[in-house]
Amino acid sequence: MDRAIEHTKYLIAGSSHAALEAINAIRMHDAEGPITVVTRDAHLPYSPTVLPYVVSGKSAPERIFLRDDDFFARNKVAYRPKAALKALHADRNTAELADGSSVVYEKLLLATGASPAIPPIPGIDTVSYHVLRTLDDALKLRGAIAESKQAVVLGAGLVGMHAAENLVKAGASVTIVEMSEQLTSGYFDKVAADMIEQAFRDAGAKIMTGSRVVRLEPTAAGAKLTLENGTTLEADLLLVATGVKPEMDYLNGSGVEHAQGILVDDRMQTTAENVWAAGDCAQARGFFTGTKVMNAILPDATIQGRVAGMAMAGDPGVKDYAGGVPLNTYHFFGRHAISVGSSTVPEGGEVVTRFDEASGRYLKAIFGPDGRLTGIFGVNEFFDGGVMAQLILRRTDLTPLRSRFVANPLAVGREIMSQTWR
């Protein structure tokens, strides 16, 4: 076969959690249909969530891969690294790749993930900076951290905070600059964020919330940052961690509708025939609002990939996607924080909190007027995020168990799971 034009039954663009779960789902129903995986990455599959641990040295780069060559051989999958999707011609079921080749498919899954969102700060194109989204990014950042004395991290999401902690532990002077009024604003409330902030301050980091960078300039050591209030900062290492955005340039002219992400229905199908999308690039129905939202988290990527794979293979057991429920965990300086569900209090709902300042334990649970859990958040509290998400998705009435649940969500959640889930 001419390598320039390949034919396959299932083409999967991307190689992380959504893509791998789709392979499993396809093979459960179709053991023989040819599968081709193309990815812009140069490596075997890995999870972006492990990258902070590569930076810190806790995870060896050679041990982070989710699958090996034998997996692809056993599942009759042609795995093609360094083969980014360049253009999609959905009208003729053809994907054009950056290496100049093309793949004709019967079914296509877009699981192309997301890339760092670079803010339009004047001068950003004149300075050297780091991002953290790929293994190569992590290895480059790990090397730079070892040499850094004066580091600035732009963005106080989980990626930026992980990196800032590594920098602090490496002995650098670290300043975190965040536009929002609190750290981790997309994940935790002010009480939890203040606890996280105090841990960083105690470790020696400087925190500048409510601050906006308005100019960047190169210096002999690295970069000079000017803030909106006129304050200037010097950095020999600059990390830009201001969020991510889906890879969608290849959709231009394809007819696949997209907004913040690739729009999909409850079977993960796009507006184009024979094309599905899943993971960080997909904009699917949110559980709480019913509107289509981005929910770029690992558990959701896995669920969406499974639904897409089953739908692509024609598996009669496929079920509609139930909707996205946010779930994030975060470990910092020997402590941990977790958030599951919505932080919005429903009309007629109730918020229950408990906080033990001496132990640093904080729990916040939000219930709807019907007694059903809609969100739960904690610092140094032990509960199973997956179980909490299922309680929300299954709309479990916790009214008879509320006091016990708030006192010990880990034990009561597992009790409910063992007694009622089949």
Automatic annotation (TrEMBL):
InterPro entries for this protein: FAD-bd_OxRdtase, FAD/NAD-bd_sf, FAD/NAD-binding_dom, PadH
Key words of the record: FAD, Flavoprotein
Protein name: NAD(P)/FAD-dependent oxidoreductase
Keyword hit for Flavoprotein: yes
Cofactor: FAD
Domain FAD/NAD(P)-binding: 9-285
Keyword Aminoacyl-tRNA synthetase: no
Assigned protein family: Belongs to the FAD-dependent oxidoreductase family.
Highest taxon above the source species: Bacteria
